[in-house]
Amino acid sequence: MSDNRAVSVRSLTRRFGTNTVLNALDLELEPGSFTALLGRSGSGKSTLLRTLAGLDPAPADAEIRVPASVAVAFQEPRLLPWKKVWQNVTIGLPGSGAKARAERALAEVGLNRHTEAWPATLSGGEAQRTALARALVREPRLLLLDEPFAALDALTRIRMHALVLDLWRVHTPTTLIVTHDVDEAVLLADRVLVLDAGRIAADIPVEMPRPRSHGDSRFVALRRRLLSELGVEAEVIREAA
Amino acid sequence: MSEHALGARGALASPEPIRARLPRVNLSQYRRFISPLVIVLLWQAASMAGLISPRTLAAPTTILASAWELVLSGELPRHLLVSLGRVASGLAIGVTTGAALALVAGLSRLGEEVVDAPMQMLRTLPFLALVPLFILWFGIGETPKIALVALGSAFPVYLTLFAGIRGVDPKLMEAGKVFGLDRRGLVRHVVLPAALPSGLVGLRYALGSAWLSLVIAEQINATAGIGFLINDARDFLRTDVIVVGLLVYALLGLSADALVRAFERRALAWRPSLVKG
Ligand SMILES: Nc1ncnc2c1ncn2[C@@H]1O[C@H](COP(=O)(O)OP(=O)(O)O)[C@@H](O)[C@H]1O
Ligand SMILES: [Mg+2]
């Protein structure tokens, strides 16, 4: 890559019928950065992520550059139920030594005792950690997470937040997490993007040392700003406060 | 998760031994055999009292004695082997053909257009009605018998496997793709395992259908096989031998089903019901 952008998207337009979901969208991500993508339901977050993952064909007039190794974790773990946990982690990996790599990745996410288990026996959090191990074992330079914790209970989600940050620090992939949870975005990311009307409507750096706390005044201010970017009425915020 | 399992076991720990000690539990397992046993005893009593003529239905003890004789004389094993051979060849051909057609139709659009429409039309035909045509085409030797078994077993396998292949969760396909599986890898690691449970249900239907086809096929001028044994016994009014033949058919059907179930337990060990149950 000639410049130092890990991800570079120029004038990406995506339509479904008459519904223009992404409208000449531009996006750039620094290598090793942790970015959160916020947006209302149906605003096109998953569509953007799927295009970056290569799951949807890129429109011919758009310019999209991503690293060679991209890994994804979806909202549902999407494990193959007929493969043991470690086999799910190594799916699509060539060569010998794959099992040892899977075991190391599973140990990293705290699942070393479940390598031989069937996915059906895992809890929601364990299944999602397996999905993270499956993404990480590929040493991706770009890690795409599409609302990976939305289906988990609050306590499990807190643990997963810590885990994702740990993994990001160790492996330093450029990370893009899609979420509709403002707190999650502020807690995790260096930079928060808001997707609206098919474009990046707001691009806000998060300059707070980690670990971050909900009580921090900067946290509260940023949270309020993002909520208003998302079009949540001021009265609702005041009532909730 | 493990804490939860421990908690559940802890809660059950006290009532379980108590329940195990009660004899009532064991009795109820055998209770369902009582009424068939009573019927057989009544049947025996009626036969001994001369209420049921041996020409209508032989007594249970006579049937047992005949069965034993047929086994010792080697006659039953010989006919059994002939029938088993027919079912095995017919099933091998039928299951292979059904599975191959399902793969062709399930894995490609063109294949579906070519294969599925005629298959869906043919399956509405009661295949046993083809017996007269089969006799004209294949004569009265082994071929029409095996062909009938093959035909009867091909359709259930085709229909269930095709449905299984088409019912694969697209989200799993997408996950397979994004983690680097090519088309062959997707078929091998995602499509086929996903379609296997449904295909095995089809195999069980196929077995049932195969026995039925065998019974009909063995009415076609057979000179050996369980069906021949039954037809021959009819000519000599040997109701005892006829019942022995029927029992053998029943046992064969049951053991084939048990075989597939055992295979299912191994091949589908990952299924939630089997994992947790
Ligand atoms: N394959 C598709 N066909 C038609 N419409 C789609 C398709 N995928 C997404 N959409 C539409 O695009 C819009 C954005 O969807 P999505 O990217 O999933 O939103 P988000 O992830 O932000 O909730 C929605 O209105 C959705 O209905
Ligand atoms: Mg989405």
Question: Secondary structure elements and their pairing?
Answer:
The complex is a heterodimer of chains A (241) and B (277).
Chain A: E1 7-16, E2 19-29, E3 34-39, H1 45-53, E4 63-65, E5 70-73, H2 85-89, H3 98-108, H4 124-136, E6 142-146, H5 154-171, E7 174-178, H6 182-188, E8 191-196, E9 199-205, H7 217-229, H8 234-240
Parallel strand pairs in A: 3-7, 3-8, 5-6, 6-7
Antiparallel strand pairs in A: 1-2, 1-4, 8-9
Helix pairs in contact in A: 3-4, 4-5, 6-7
Chain B: H1 2-13, H2 15-21, H3 23-48, H4 60-72, H5 75-107, H6 109-123, H7 131-138, H8 142-166, H9 170-178, H10 183-217, H11 226-235, H12 239-267, H13 272-276
Helix pairs in contact in B: 4-12, 5-6, 5-8, 5-10, 5-11, 7-8, 8-10, 9-10, 10-12, 11-12
Find the biggest chain interface.
A-B, 25 and 24 residues
- The helix fraction of chain A, in percent, is 25-40%
Which segments of chain A are poorly predicted (pLDDT under 50) over 5 or more consecutive residues? none
Global shape of chain A: globular
Order of helices and strands of chain A: EEEHEEHHHEHEHEEHH
- CATH homologous superfamily title of the largest domain in chain A: P-loop containing nucleotide triphosphate hydrolases
Strand/helix succession of chain B: HHHHHHHHHHHHH
Number of domains of chain B: 2
Cα-to-Cα separation, first versus last residue of chain B: 16 Å
Protein name (chain A): ABC transporter ATP-binding protein
Domain ABC transporter (chain A): 7-222
Keywords (chain A): ATP-binding, Cell membrane, Membrane, Nucleotide-binding, Translocase, Transport
InterPro entries (chain A): AAA+_ATPase (IPR003593), ABC_transporter-like_ATP-bd (IPR003439), ABC_transporter_ATP-bind (IPR050166), P-loop_NTPase (IPR027417)
